[in-house]
Amino acid sequence: MTEPLSAGNPFKRVLAIAGNTFREAIRDRVLYNLVVFVLLIVACAILLGELTNGQEARTIVNIGLNALLIFGTFIAIFVGVGLVSKEIEKRTVFNIFSKPVGRGEFVTGKFLGLCLTLLVNTFVMGLGVSLALIYVNNSSLALSIWPAIFLIFFELMITTAVAIMFSSFSTPALSALLTFFVFIIGHLSSSLRDLASGLSSRMASLFLETVYFLLPNLALFSFRTEAANELVPTASMLGYAVLYSTFYCVVLLTIAIIIFSRRNFK
Amino acid sequence: MEHIVSVENLSKDYETGFWKKKKVRALDGLSLSVSEGQIFGFLGGNGAGKTTTIKLLMRLLYPTEGSASILGQPIDSVSMHRQIGYCPENPYFYDYLTPVELFDYFGRLFDLDASKRKAKTGELLTKVGLEERDWKKQLRKFSKGMLQRVGLAQSLINEPRIVFLDEPMSGLDPIGRREIRELIAELPSKGTAVFMSTHILSDAEALCDEVAILSRGKLAAAGKLHDLLAESNDQPRFEIVVAGADAAKLRISIPNATEIEQRSGDTLVIANRDSDIEGILRAARDAGGSLISINPIRRSLEDLFVAQTKTD
Ligand SMILES: Nc1ncnc2c1ncn2[C@@H]1O[C@H](COP(=O)(O)OP(=O)(O)OP(=O)(O)O)[C@@H](O)[C@H]1O
Ligand SMILES: [Mg+2]
Q: What does pLDDT average to over chain B?
């Protein structure tokens, strides 16, 4: 009767949850934003192609990569805050947790599922920008923008983890707002530090220092303007960004899991 | 026999209100145990705490006090859940999935391989009477009764040793109810014990070996259904039907008969003891009536239930 029961394979369960999350995103037509994006890029390419003042490729990269970041951030925030809360609200968690699924496995699976969605989204958008560049006869730029796209994806992972973390204890609307603030401040965070060092009040500068320390430094992932100027990030910059993003996601998800594990599903 | 569920002094307070947190005790010191290989009925009126108890056992809620174990493992053991099944009250599933996709997903959570998942899907959906043309329809298009059937079927996907069913008959049509009743009845013979909450007493009477009756969060009665009914039947009562006697007249002449009721032409008198029968018959004759029938009243689960859950 009390023979130890095998715990099964947690990785398979996490993958199953991630797979289902991806499928949900597809069926909820999350990827339809790609259509809007592709139309935008095609319109840009055709319009700029007619102007041909020598700047068209640069403009395509600027518009394309910024749109890619904004579209992706929207998905990360709005799908991210609903990932877990929607399942609680619709009571689908009842079926999940009566099965051999740990709360941590669930949160991790949901996170990875949205990351997969964002990866596909980012890849298709990147492809759109590349094709537009080929259309305006700049195939070298079509290739060299990919590291910058890669960085955007790792930034989106952090935004997703932030959204999940907030939604583990607050409402979806508030979580979306808070995540949006983190996104904005995260991009300004180095100026925050400069501001802190320039302040005379010790308290205020300490406060800003703390904010700088706690919030993700999303500027690390910004290489969009540089990419438009045909620059390529160094391997160490890429490596550091990947490590930073991974570390940040692990910390945020751990917090989310700890909070989520204590919740009662009424 | 071994206990596959044992609950020890389990209590749950719900916190309500945003500012001033008020605590509502939904379950109060429940202790019970369920033996292997049987159908256990968990009865109680609306708001008695049945769903709360089952959700505590499924670790969807955390207890305020007390503890419980299933299959000899504490309820917070995740791996224990490999061997149990659960169908929530008014089950709801991912509405963008079809039953086939849902079963495949749930099968993966139990580590079943692809062929097993496929086999179980077909077997169980057939068993709960879901027509094959609905197997590939999105669940958002399902009626309440169809969802209830899917819920019951999914709770058996891992061939559990015990399945927890919260109001499994709710939302089913009469034929569906009969089918599901038969399905539940045969589970113990296939190695699956059943813990089911219900307030449909005829279902409990037909299916359950043992019952527990919950009233306002507290255990009111528990034991073998047979024993509980026998206990409440140890002082048998009788139903006497008399024709041609006026109920008003009888009421004066039979002071100790508790219930006298006029029913179209006949009068119904309840004798609380067999020694009362003599007097009632004499009074009826004196009032010009004639005897139609005398029958012992067997108390049903319903009487027991009403007696146990009445406000004290
Ligand atoms: N989320 C909640 N917040 C506050 N109180 C709750 C909550 N859920 C249930 N309760 C209270 O707990 C008590 C028990 O509820 P529960 O749902 O367990 O009853 P039940 O026996 O399943 O009833 P029913 O037969 O109607 O399904 C009730 O008094 C109810 O008001
Ligand atoms: Mg209930």
A: 89
B5-19 per-position pLDDT tens digit: 999 999 999 988 777
* Rounded Cα gap, residues B199 and B203, in angstroms: 8
What is the pLDDT at residue A2?
Answer: 43
Domains of chain B: 5-231 (3.40.50.300), 235-299 (3.30.70.980)
Measured CA to CA, the distance from residue B211 to residue B201 in angstroms comes to 11
DSSP B274: T
Strands B259-263 and B84-87: unpaired
Higher pLDDT, B57 or B20: B57
Tokens of B26: 């939904």
For chain A, the domains span 10-261
Cβ separation A100–B71 shorter than 8 A: no
pLDDT, position A3: 46
Secondary structure (3-state) at B22: strand
Q: Give the integer Cα–Cα distance in Å for A85 and B90.
A: 19
Residue whose tokens read 């599922």? A113
Tell me which residue has its CA closest to atom 5 in ligand 1: B14
Phi and psi for A230 in degrees, rounded to 5? 65, 20
Residue A91 is nearest to which of B59, B79, B88, comparing CB atoms? B88
Pocket of ligand 1 (CB under 6 A): A 266; B 14, 16, 24, 26, 44, 46-52, 89, 199
What integer pLDDT is reported at residue A171 of this predicted model?
Answer: 93
Q: What is the pTM of this model?
A: 0.87
Pairing of strands B259-263, B266-271: antiparallel
Among residues A67, A76, A14, the alpha carbon closest in space to that of A43 is found at: A67
Angle in degrees, 0-180, between the axes of helices A103-135 and A146-167, rounded to the nearest 10: 150
Residues A196 and A212 sit within 8 Å (Cβ to Cβ)? yes
Task: Tell me the β-bridge partners of B50.
Answer: none
CA distance B162 to chain A (A): 12
CB A30 within 8 A of CB A74: no
Write out pLDDT tens, residues B191-205: 999 999 998 888 888
Residue located via tokens 């009032």: B287
The Cα–Cα gap between A53 and A56 comes to: 7
pLDDT at B56: 96
Give yes or no for A82 touching B (CB within 8 A).
no
Ligand 1 atom closest to Cα of residue B44 = 21
Write out chain B residues lying below 8 Å of A21, CB-based: none
Q: How far is residue A92's CA from residue A110's CA, in Å, rounded to a whole number?
A: 13
Measuring CA to CA, which residue among B156, B159, B160, B125 is closest to residue B139?
B125
3-state secondary structure B37-71: CCEEEEEECCCCCHHHHHHHHCCCCCCCEEEEEEC
**Helix runs in A91-135, H state only:** 93-97, 103-135
In 3D space, the residue among A175, A55, A56, A72 whose CA is nearest the CA of residue A115 turns out to be: A72
- DSSP class of residue B183? H
